[in-house]
Design goal:
mainly alpha, 4 helices
């Protein structure tokens, strides 16, 4: 069963993804579905472990940067350092 989903992306990323999908004879919807299947079908513990990171970098604008959870102590230290 298919369901609709609305997503928002940077316009340049969308244009690059559309071009990539067209060049590979796949719809943008199926391309995104494929990527989501790959991401959710593994037991990776963080985004840095995903093998698609290199591919995403090819169609994304600039270098992909992933935000990971920091320890509470690191967050506290950063907060207090910014107040100095």
């Amino acid at each position: 069963m298919n369901a609709k989903l609305t997503l928002s992306f940077n316009e340049e990323v969308i244009n690059k993804a559309k071009k990539y999908a067209e060049e590979n004879d796949i719809s943008l919807s199926r391309l995104i579905e494929f990527l989501l299947i790959k991401v959710t079908s593994t037991d990776y513990k963080s985004l840095e472990q995903y093998p698609i990171a290199d591919w995403v970098h090819l169609i994304a604008e600039g270098k992909a940067e992933y935000q990971t959870r920091r320890s509470r102590k690191a967050s506290k230290n950063e907060f207090f350092a910014s107040k100095k």
